[in-house]
Amino acid sequence: MQKLKIHSLTKTYDGQEALASVDLDIQAGEWVGIIGESGSGKSTLLKIIGRFLDADKGEIFVDEKKLPPVSSQLLKGHEAIKLVHQEYELFPNQSVRENIAYALRFYEPEYRNQRVNELLKLTRLEDVQHRKAKLLSGGEKQRTALAHSLAEVPGLLLLDEPFAHLDPNNKQTLADAIEDLKKSHRLTCLFVTHDASEALAWADRIVILREGNIIQEGRPEEVYQYPINQYAAELTGLVNILSAENNAGQRVIRPNFIRIIKDESKACWTAVIVKIRFKGTHYEYYCRTEQGEDLLCYRSRRDREVGEKVFLTSSKKHSQLVARH
Ligand SMILES: Nc1ncnc2c1ncn2[C@@H]1O[C@H](COP(=O)(O)OP(=O)(O)OP(=O)(O)O)[C@@H](O)[C@H]1O
C-alpha cells in the first residue's frame, strides 16, 4: 500500500456524533499516532479504516482506489489492512504457536514454521509458545495478536492501544522490534494510545482527536512545543497553564522550560515549593507563585525542600499563547 486517504468521514451512533468529517492522509512507511481523551472517536476511526464498520458519510481511498462499503463485502476487513483490537481475537484452546500459524495456513509447512519461529522471537513469546491462549497473561495475549497480524506484513497496521498491557521492558523490546520492521519492510502504522509519551516517541506524526474532530496534527516535536489549545497541551504531556496578560487566552509552558535560579533580579516568579516528587530520572518540584498560580518544574537533584522560597524563570520563546479551550 502506498497511500491511504480518508475524506470527510462521519459516524453517528444513536444520534450522537462520534466522528465529524475527518480527513486524513497516510503515506507508505509513516507511523501516525492518534491521541484524544476517552470517547473522542479513536477506536471508531480505527474500526472504519480497518473495514469493520461503515461510516455514515465519507470516503476511504487505498492507492487512489475508493473502497466499497463494508456492508457490501462478503467478509469484513481488508486484505492489506490489519487491525489489532483491544479485545484480542485468539482461539482460546489453541496454543500461541498454533494461533500465529493460523495466519499462515495457506503457506508451505516449512516456510510457515520458519516464519512462526521468527515471529515468536520478535514478540518474545518463545517460552510460552505451547501454552493455550486462554491461559496467557494480558500482555502475552496482546503480543500473540500482534505476531498474528505481522505474519504477513500488512500494507497498513492498525493498533488500538498496542502496548497497554506490557511492562516497560517488554514494551521497549516490542517497540524496537516494530521499528526494525518499519525500516526493513516500510511498515505503515496507525496507532491509538492513551500514553502521550508513547505517541511522541514512536509516531512520525501525531493526530489529536477531540469530540470526533481532528483539532491538530503535526510532528511530535511541533505538537508538543506548539499545542493549539489547553486540551492539546494537556494531552501531550505535563504542562503549566497560566493566565495570559490582558485576558488574552492562556500561556502554556512545559515544566522542562522552567528553571530555579539564585538571582532574584532575573526571576519571572517568586514562589514557594509545595511538593517534591521523585521520578527516577529527575524530581518534580511543584511550586505556588506569589500570584497564587501553580508551577511545575523539573530538577535533576533534590537540593531544595518543601516550604522553601525559590526564584523561577523561563524564556519567552518557550512559552506559548493558546486559546482557552
Ligand atoms: N457501538 C456503539 N454504540 C453506541 N455508541 C458508541 C458505540 N461505539 C462507540 N460509541 C460512542 O462513540 C463515541 C466514540 O467512541 P470510541 O470508542 O471511538 O472512543 P475512543 O476515543 O476510542 O474512547 P476510549 O479511549 O475510551 O477507547 C463515544 O461516545 C462512545 O460512547
Structure description:
This is ABC transporter domain-containing protein. Residues 4-236 form the ABC transporter domain. Keywords: ATP-binding, Nucleotide-binding, Transport. One of its GO terms (cellular component) is ATP-binding cassette (ABC) transporter complex. With 325 residues, the chain is α+β, with helices and mostly antiparallel strands. The protein folds into two domains: 3-225, Rossmann fold, CATH 3.40.50; 238-322, Nucleic acid-binding proteins (OB fold (Dihydrolipoamide Acetyltransferase, E2P)), CATH 2.40.50. Helix content is 24%, strand content 32%. The chain has helices at residues 42-49, 96-102, 109-122, 138-150, 168-185, 196-202, 220-225, 230-235, and strands at 3-13, 16-27, 31-36, 57-62, 65-66, 81-84, 156-160, 189-192, 205-210, 213-218, 240-243, 250-253, 259-261, 269-278, 283-289, 294-299, 309-313, 319-322. The chain has a six-stranded mixed beta sheet, with helices on both faces. It has a five-stranded antiparallel beta sheet with strand order 13-17-14-15-16, with no helix packed on it. Strands 2-1-4-5 form a four-stranded antiparallel beta sheet, with helices on one face. A hairpin with a 2-residue loop joins strand 9 and strand 10. Helix 2 packs parallel to helix 4. The mean pLDDT is 90. The structure holds adenosine-5'-triphosphate. Adenosine-5'-triphosphate is lined by residues 13-14, 18, 36, 38-44. Adenosine-5'-triphosphate binds at residues 13-14, 18, 36, 38-44.
